[in-house]
Amino acid sequence: MSEQTTTASDEIDLLHLYKKLKQITRGWIRSLFKALDFVLRNWLILLILLAVGIGVGYYLQYDKKTSKEAKVLLKVNFDSGNYLYNAVEVLERKISERDSEFLMSIGMDSLYPAVTGLTLEPIIDVKDITENFEATDRNLDPILRYVEFNMEEEELYQTFATDYNYHYLKATLTSKGSKEDLEKIMAFINSSPILKEYKTNAVQTIQDKIDANQATIMQIDQFLAEYLKQEITPNSPPSAQYYVERDTRPDLLLTNKNELLLENRELKNELVFYKEAIIPMSGMEVYPAEKTLMDKKIIVMPILLIVVFLSLVLFRHVYFSLRAIANREDA
Predict the structure, then answer these.
(1) I need a surface site. Which of 125, 214, 233, 244 has the fewest CB within 10 A?
(2) Cα gap 221→237, rounded to integer Å
(3) Does residue 269 contact residue 67 with C-beta atoms inside 8 Å?
(4) Who has greater pLDDT, 188 or 329?
(5) pTM
């Protein structure tokens, strides 16, 4: 008896489900037919809106001058990351405020500046962070563990943004923007008197180190020449400038010379990047900005007009439905 009751109950549930699905399918078909009927009744209006939208979109799209953009790779010297971010923030604010006095002072149009926006994006390299710590620093290991297991890339960017050595400067420009405008931006960033003095002192210190190393290398060469002379002709009179001892090891002198040569090469390479506190590593080229969907007015405008029309039709339908309900309640 119980099994028969269960079977009957299952059959009722399946029948109910079938009826429900049939009802839903009929609802979809009915809605589709109403939409098709609406299009057939208003095809002329929809066609006119489509044509007008395409025409207006074509005019707006091709009459508008294309904006430009640039992406410049910057190298930060002298631990001036904080200064770089502050300088770009000041520039961004002054441009948005149309500060005529400031813009004129850096050679930009005060009414219609060619640069419309600036942003900085660091190139994340954990090595740049670890260089700020000694190898035996106990704080280094916990930081690396936290970075590896707990921090997302965005958090890492926010926390150490100014500590990285390389950054991308992204600029948006008007259609009149050019490479010269980016050069003006870089000139302002590097205009700090303190940074200029720091750069001069740093360059002089490196140059003095190179000169000192070079002098030591010359002394080593002269000493080795005297050593070879004594080895080849033991009875020759010794040099008045150098005294060569019997246990002299020329291999150590050659090792020291090679170390000094290598250090000088690295220092000279370093000087190449010390022309300014912040230097562009890539060309400051300006390119047409990538078009977004909103820039494709030929597509956007027809859709917008049709959506507005459908919204008005829906509003009218809802309004008359509510008014009919209100009239029935009053009656």
Answers:
(1) 233
(2) 19
(3) no
(4) 188
(5) 0.61
